[in-house]
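The authors assume throughout that readers already know how a fold can be written as discrete tokens. The format is easy to grasp once an entry is in front of the reader. For illustration, here is how one protein appears when written out as sequence plus structure tokens:
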Amino acid sequence: MRESSSNLSKQNSQQPKDIRGGEKKVMKKSLSTILSLAMAFSMFSSVAFGEEAKKSSADFSDLKDLDAATKAKFDEMISAGVFDGVKEGTFGLKDKMNRAQFAKVAALIFKLQVDSSLKTSSFTDVKADDPANGYALPYIEAVKKAGITDGYAPGEFNPAGEVTKEQLATFLIRGLNKDAEGKATPGVSDKTVSDWAKGYVALALQLKLLSSGTDGTFGGTSAATRDLLVLGSYEAKQQYKGPAFNGKYAIASLKATDANVLTLQLNGALSEEAAKALKIEVKRDGNAVTSGYTTKWSDDKTTATLTFESKFQDNKFDVTISGVDNIDSAAKTASVTTTPEKITKIDFLTASDTIPLTRDKNDKLIQKVRIDFKATNQYGVKTNLNASNFDIRVNGGTFSNIAGEQAINLTEEEGTERNDRISISIMHQDSGVQVNKIFTVGDESLVSKVEVGDLLNAAGVKIDAIEANSTNNYLDVKAYDQYGFRVEDKNVLNDDVSVNFSDNDLEEGPGTGDRPNDPFVDDVVGDTAADMQIRSTNNEEKEITITVYARGGNSASKTVKVKASKIPATVEFGSYNYTLAEGDQLTGDEDVDKKFYIPLIAKDSKGELLDADDIVTAYADGGKDSKFDIRSTSGLTLGKNGNKNAEIATTGAYKGYLVVSSVDRKGTQSITVSLEDHREVSTTLNISVSDPREADSIKFSATPKKYIVGGTDTEVKYKIYDQNGTEMKYSTDSENDYKVRLTYTGTATSTAGTGEDVYLASKEKSDANNRKVKLSTVSGNTYSADFPLLTAAAVKDTTLDPWDNFFDKSFKFYSTANSPTGTWTLKATLIKVPKKGSNAGKEIELDTLSTTIERIDPNKSENKLTYEAYLDKGVNNTILAADDYYDVNNKGAAQGVTGSTYLYNNYKKLTKEVKLRAKKVNGEEVAVPSGFYNATTGKANSIISVTSNNPLVANIPTSAGNFVAGLEAGTAKISVLFRNAKGDQESKTIDVTTKNEGPAVASIALRKTDKTVDRATINGNTNLYLWSKELAEKITVKDQFGDEVVSEFTPGAPNEELNAADQFLIKANGVTGSQNTNDVLNLNFYISDVTGGDASGVSINNQTGQITFNSTTITGFTVNVIAPSGVTAAFGVTVSN
């Protein structure tokens, strides 16, 4: 009941007091007032009708001096009903136990089947009507059946007889199903133990069921006392695994163990498979219950706890197990009857009958007094009812309920003085249980004891550590006065409690307000008590001891961790699978330099991963504030350009990586990284360094097709590999030069054609009409050309172009439209030319690689070709629905063109080129042309027309008849009409899907990721872009449709074939064919990591990537590009003078 529910005054402060402590004063209250309160409740029993409260050690006077650990064991056994006292208020701790008592205990702890209906025993001396031991008859029969004992003598049990210690040991061992093990255990060497029992006693001691006496002997034949029975049976109960499982699962017991909890126990532990399959079906009053409860199994898979959302009423529950084959059908269902929750006992939890005076000499209220109580239900469990569910009455003050708890805050009335009396009565009307207590008023509170608990956040949630530079941290400090009452008032606590920190990085209090350093603040975590607030003032990882002092002299300490944000607490090397060789050095070429950057994985103490910026910040340029200690063996030089303060890259694509600038000696080398703040944390990477790199083999990087028809080409590329099988783009071999000789031979087998023989030429041109290198043949002659492998030093030669190196250089076999048939062979020979020694200048052949190209006659039956039309660089024939996404139809209409034409003219790379490919009957691919048909020349083997059956979805630009543009989302069938190699017309179709998905950038690749440039080259350069030749050289952006958008070199600069290099990312003034695809991609460019000068000296247009540099001091910066999809790329620039 709530306070207002009774007509009796519960907060009547006008009645006279009964006693004035030690002084003769006029009585303001009469004793009759307090007595009347007691009488008002006298009609109710202190224990609910028909219900008995579960007991604990507190109910027995001879158990009050037990230590806490032993008391907890007694409490568990007493509350479980295994033990009771020998009489009211007395447990009989040192009384000798008899055999009847043991039988009951053994039956309960070993969960034996007890037939309570038995009235006749198999022993002649066990009688149901025996006033002393008759209660034990069913228990005696249960222990006999279980084999724990077979009696004292033939036909006799001797229920009143004593149990010796060695008998107790034996009984417990048998109860644990270890009889055979007890017999087999080597016996103790103890004269106090009978020979027959020595093995049992030895095993009992090993299992710590019992212990020897202080003199080292067991005292086996001496009588066991009740305290030994409690402790021994407690230990046995903890170790008991249940009866030997007979192979069939059965319900051993079903009990209501709380007002909303059923506990189901099986006869054996579930196997892993059975635990997954077993089902529990619940019925309440015959109706299936499928929701409103949860099931939790014990760790040993023997006991299921069913917790219901609502409390029980007068119900019958039937529980059935199923789902596995091996279930005992006779014991698969159990029933239990429940009753509504009843309170059986209410206890005050106050430590003293004296409460502190809470008013000062001016009668001003200092604090309130917290009064806790405990209401126990019929299951011996504390009910979850809170104070508002009880009828609480106070004489001598007022009170307020503490929300959600069985506690009140007592406010002493005005005029309260020392030795006054205050009466509190608590009643639960529905159960008819009440408790009364009269407290004497003592002195004002003096905090005499403090307890330090967990760290909490502002939500009251436990935290493991304090985050550096944080303020909302609270230490759970419980303070108690000289009477044992909890002190919760902020002002009293700040007066009586002080705090000290072992390090100044922690401070107490909120840090703001009128009293910023008062440790206690108004309740934050939600427990009504003032909270101790702690602030961290520095971003450093450490442990700090907090000591809290009570004014009464007591103190308590706690060591807490301060977790620094983004400060490395662990470090390890990331995946690194490259092979290094003596003589390796940074070149500035991304493909080559990948192996010189080693990833670091660092986490802070919260387990959060540090990103590249965090690692660079922690590195602090390798200075005295660096959190990393980086060391390497002498065979490796760390740091860009050997700078020991640049061991970690602070700019560019490899920002946050360890940098190896050169490899100086072969053999096993290592790098070790330790943490300055955690010297115990260290990680080492061992790197096997091989001999200096020497060219060893040559392989195709682009394999040409073996067959070709007239009027087309097929590409071939090569790569060089060293002795370790690693790509060797540049030579670092100081003792040898390397070159590749291409030799081209062949014979035309037909003279019918008037065109030139199939020839090999570089893609690179020397002028507008000529390839720089061309190898052709006349019958029987051999043509060749040599190509040097450039050295690493050549990378820094700004006059060289990417295609000047033979490595991955593009060559093609070309056939004219009327070329004769024939077969030609291309042979690549890798050659070493020593610089020193007897072989200096001599050519040494290292490896060869050959391929043939056959110009076929498509009119011959053996050269029948099967064609396929496809979308170049397509992904599952899916393209962008550009009109849905970018409204190209309306934009095109404004320019007088179709939407597809507008898309091609402005964003060509978002359309797809239709191409052809062909195969011979044996599946070999044949190089065929895919260009658009030229009606003037009548060129065969090319596309005549491309049409769409659904032009609203996909259509063909009028300016490019062999391209497809997506418009609205949907599907379309694209028909391709073309002339095959024989000149006959054929048609093929392509099923196309268009999607209204904005282009999502899947990758951004730069040709270079790092460069050192002369200041004069970029200072004031008005035509400088990220992809300029002076910087990254090329940027390639790919989306989810396979579209590739490329910008290469400074706008207007020539490419390999002396045409204007691609500029499809941004439209450059005066550059024909350039397009502003970034309108759709929305890449964003920005500058970071500026070093050596004012950051304003370098800037970039965030939409076009154009860079402005005007500085005489800046020594480095990073150019970054990021897509809306989150994909990024970075280019590091080092500026040299």
